[in-house]
Amino acid sequence: MQLLATITSKRQLTIPVAMFQNLGLQLTRKVLIRADGNVLTIEPASALVQSLAGSVQIPTKYKGKSTEDIIRDAKHKYFRKRKHDFR
Known about the structure:
This protein has 87 residues and is of the alpha+beta class. Helices cover 38% and strands 14% of the residues. It contains three helices and two strands, in the order αββαα. The longest helix has 19 residues, at 67-85.
């Protein structure tokens, strides 16, 4: 599928609905963007996790959690620790 899109003055690119749905993207989710020469590839960040599946053992505390939950928990722990560092 090939469609025309416009990059805004803020360097933002709107992904056409058909491509967005085809790629299985979801609002507010992270994506990986890779450049190979002048070609950009965009894929859900979860694709990286799936491609690594089996090559890295998941710690017990993360089993059954989504990537977004793990990232949210890590951020919460990091910023809570930083808050205590400034006291």
